[in-house]
Amino acid sequence: MTTRTNKVTCDLTISLDGYAAGHNQSEERPFGDDGGDGWGSELHAWYENKEENKAEIARMAETKAFIMGRNMFGPVRGEWDRPWTGWWGDNPPYHGPVFVLTHHPRDPQPMEGGTTFHFVTDGIESAFRQARAAVGDDGAISIHGGATTVNQYLAAGLITEMRLHHVPLTLGAGTRLFDGVPPMKLEQVSSRAATGVTHATYRVLSSS
């Protein structure tokens, strides 16, 4: 039997109190009450300093397939009543297959640069199987977000490595990492402080 060796990661920026987004998310403010402009200007400011954070950004580029929740893909709810193709323009940054969790069927959406959004209606395990099939036995998979989707995969024991980017602000409420996740045992692999962020990587050892 073939042994799969896929690395399954999440790369998530969170506030010091564990939130990846605030309340009141909308098309005008995708990150809601996020301590900034609603577009992650404070949470994700570190990403603009590409030289100082080039190692962390380069690791993200190693991913071959992505899984995200419908809320991360866009603000459309219910049936697909307009041709929404994501927040990222005609050439999204993924350059590979992206599996979007949804309750409403939709044909795959190819984009420029090699990204294709696939819409999965039969659950997180199905999306995971499809991502594995797309990348082969050793291709890297990112459980890309948001935090609610990451929490589901953590609870299912399907994430092997967590890459958390802690920024020095608190939100007080919103979508929080680890909500609904059973107790877990992690091993810290690395930690590095940069301007406005601390990058920490953890290997997931077990969950109960």
From TrEMBL:
- The transmembrane segments are none
Which SUPFAM superfamilies does the record match to this protein? Answer: Dihydrofolate reductase-like
UniProt cross-references to Gene3D superfamilies, sorted A to Z: Dihydrofolate Reductase, subunit A (3.40.430.10)
**Domain Bacterial bifunctional deaminase-reductase C-terminal, first and last residues per copy:** 7-195
**Which Pfam families does the UniProt record give?**
RibD_C (PF01872)
Please name the InterPro entries in this protein's record.
Answer: DHFR-like_dom_sf (IPR024072), RibDG_C (IPR002734), Riboflavin_Biosynth_HTPR (IPR050765)
- List the PANTHER family hit by this protein, alphabetically: BIFUNCTIONAL DEAMINASE-REDUCTASE DOMAIN PROTEIN, DIHYDROFOLATE REDUCTASE FAMILY PROTEIN (AFU_ORTHOLOGUE AFUA_8G06820)
Name the chain's protein.
Dihydrofolate reductase family protein
